[in-house]
Every structure is written in structure tokens, then in C-alpha cells.
Design brief:
alpha/beta, Rossmann fold, six-stranded mixed beta sheet, 11 helices, 15% strand, binds pyridoxal-5'-phosphate
């Protein structure tokens, strides 16, 4: 398969803008800018909209009628999948981890508004419930298409290879891209795109939930698979992937001082809204790396905002 044969729908507002962050730059002593993938447009945006452009094209080709995916209760990926399904006329089933929250807010509110059917895993293992729900949808003749966890298959990751092409066309000099990394698709796609489009800078994933060794392994494997899907020969080893895992804090979705301070600072200094789970942690980590001298002063750092802001509303008590 080559580049030309990978089909794509148009769901996102692209290119997303790049904005300088003058006050934070002065405060931190680096040249900081931001790429606004929180503004990809569909159903409050985020990084998954890019991936869904490729994944839904595949679903259409396969004749699917129903999209089914899974995630945490406040999954941004699930909300964006529900938005894409609504826009393209698919039914959507979301298998969410745990029990329904006492208040329907943040992404769960939006999942409902977007017309998704939600299956809660309760006390059961969410992956098991997901498999059963998928099989049931098949038996019911609903022609389900399984959107991979986090949209992170080679087809989904290909979107971030294209996003690096978009960045190169924007012609903003960048020494390093920093962003929140979790299921690895965003980072894998960026790494492939960097090779394809001769991006000269570093790509630093700030892990929100996984130890560096395992995330590097995941990203390298996915990057190699994505490259071969795109007709590129890439043979990356995990040691060539850059992941920082010093900011896992209390675990996935647990807001600590790092996230809280970053969210307050970026909002009050630049009018930017981060999220409590991903971008707040990544921005907090990035600032810590700068303050510790792990990132050189004067470096041109692009913080790639991957979205997630709707979940702010599910964390009101922890953000005051
Ligand atoms: C806001 C936000 N940022 C970053 C990520 C991580 O992206 P990836 O799963 O491609 O590593 C996610 C994934 O859910 C997300 O919702």
C-alpha cells in the first residue's frame, strides 16, 4: 500500500493554528509556541479528530454501520468518535470503564448529546465487556467497526504523520515538539511524519500513564507498522523514541499540584485552557523539564495541544 491509497474523510478544521506564547516564554526562558489541535473543530476538537478522518474512511470502505470503541469514563477519544459517528451517519457504541457517574458532565454529557449508546463496564474488566459488546453488535447485524483504543492503529497514527507535513508547511522553526502521550498513536505518527517530511527537531512525548520503557516499545512498533502502511521503510528501535515518564503522579486522571498549577498558569497568562488528564500533566512536565535545565534556554519548543478541555468540567472540585 502507498500514500495515495490511504483514504481520508474531512472532519477537522486544518491546518490548526500555531500561536506564540510570549508571556510564558519570558517566564520560562525558552521560545514557546503552541499548536492548537484542541481546535480541530468537531465536537469540541482534540487529537482524535485527525485520526478519525482515516479510521472512518476505512470503516466506510468496509461497509460498517456502527462504530464501537472504548475508554475511560471521561475519554476524549470516545467523545470525538461519537461526534464523528454523528456527522457521518454511523451509529455509535461506547464501552466506558466503571460505573455511570453521579453527575452527567464533561465528556459523558457530550457523549449523550452526540447520540452515543453507552455501555458501562461496572466492576467487570472493560476490555472483556468491549469484546462481548462488539460480538453482540455483529450478531445483531449492526455491521460494527472497531475503532482501536485511542484511535491508535497504523491507520489512525497515519494522521499524525500527515500532521507533521502540515507543520512543515506552516514554516515555523521548531527545535522540539512536546505533548501528552498515552496510547502512542500521536507520537508514532509524528515520528513517521518527521522522517517523511524531514522534520529536524526532537519529538518528546510526556507520558501521562505508562512507564517510558513500555511506551517507547509501543510507539516504535506502531511507528514501524505505520511507516510500512505508508510505503516507507522505517526500522526504529524503542531506544530511538523519546518518552519522559517523570510525571505520572498519582496515576491516570489523578490531579495533583503539577497539573493544577499548569492549568491555572496557562489560563491566567495566555488565555489557554488545558485539561486535567493529558495536557495539564504534559504542560506541567514540560515546565519542570525547562526549569531543571533538561531543555536548553532559548530552545524553540512547540507544545502540541492535543485537546481534552471538556473534561475540565468533570474536575471542578479538584481545580479550585
Ligand atoms: C487530550 C489528549 N491528549 C493526548 C492524548 C494521547 O494521545 P495518544 O493516545 O495518541 O497517545 C489523548 C488520548 O486520549 C487525549 O485525549
Amino acid at each position: 500500500m502507498n500514500k495515495a491509497s490511504l483514504s481520508r474523510l474531512r472532519l477537522a478544521h486544518l491546518p490548526t493554528p500555531i500561536e506564540p506564547l510570549p508571556r510564558l516564554s519570558a517566564m520560562l526562558g525558552v521560545e514557546l509556541s503552541i499548536k492548537r489541535d484542541d481546535q480541530t473543530g468537531l465536537a469540541l476538537g482534540g487529537n482524535k479528530v485527525r485520526k478519525l478522518e482515516f479510521l472512518l474512511a476505512e470503516a466506510q470502505t468496509l461497509g460498517a454501520q456502527t462504530l464501537i470503541t472504548t475508554g475511560a469514563a471521561q475519554s476524549n477519544h470516545c467523545r470525538q468518535t461519537a461526534g464523528a459517528a454523528a456527522k457521518q451517519g454511523f451509529a455509535c457504541i461506547l464501552v466506558l470503564a466503571g460505573h455511570p457517574p453521579s453527575q452527567t458532565t464533561g465528556n459523558v454529557l457530550l457523549d449523550n448529546l452526540l447520540g452515543a449508546e453507552i455501555v458501562w463496564s461496572g466492576d467487570r474488566e472493560v476490555g472483556q465487556v468491549f469484546q462481548e459488546t462488539f460480538k453482540q453488535a455483529q450478531q445483531d447485524g449492526r455491521q460494527p467497526y472497531m475503532v482501536p483504543y485511542g484511535g491508535s492503529s497504523p491507520v489512525g497514527a497515519a494522521a499524525y504523520a500527515a500532521a507533521i507535513g502540515e507543520l512543515m508547511e506552516q514554516d515555523v522553526p521548531v527545535d522540539r515538539i512536546a505533548f501528552a502521550s498515552s496510547s502512542g498513536g500521536t507520537q508514532a505518527g509524528m515520528v513517521v511524519g518527521a522522517r517523511m517530511h524531514a522534520f529536524p527537531g526532537r519529538i518528546t512525548g510526556i507520558s501521562v500513564d505508562k512507564p517510558a520503557a513500555s511506551l517507547c516499545e509501543t510507539v516504535a512498533t506502531l511507528a514501524n507498522e505505520t511507516a510500512s502502511l505508508l510505503g516507507e521503510d522505517l526500522n526504529l528501535a524503542p531506544s530511538q523514541i523519546e518518552v519522559k515518564d517523570a510525571y505520572l503522579g498519582g496515576g491516570y486522571g489523578v490531579v495533583g499540584n503539577l497539573e493544577r498549577n499548569a492549568i491555572h498558569l496557562w489560563a491566567s497568562q495566555e488565555g489557554l485552557l488545558l485539561d486535567p488528564v493529558y495536557t495539564g500533566r504534559a504542560a506541567g512536565g514540560l515546565m519542570d523539564m525547562i526549569q531543571k535545565g533538561e531543555i536548553d534556554s532559548g530552545e524553540r519548543v512547540l507544545f502540541w495541544h492535543t485537546g481534552g478541555t471538556p473534561s475540565l468540567f468533570a474536575y471542578t472540585d479538584q481545580l479550585r
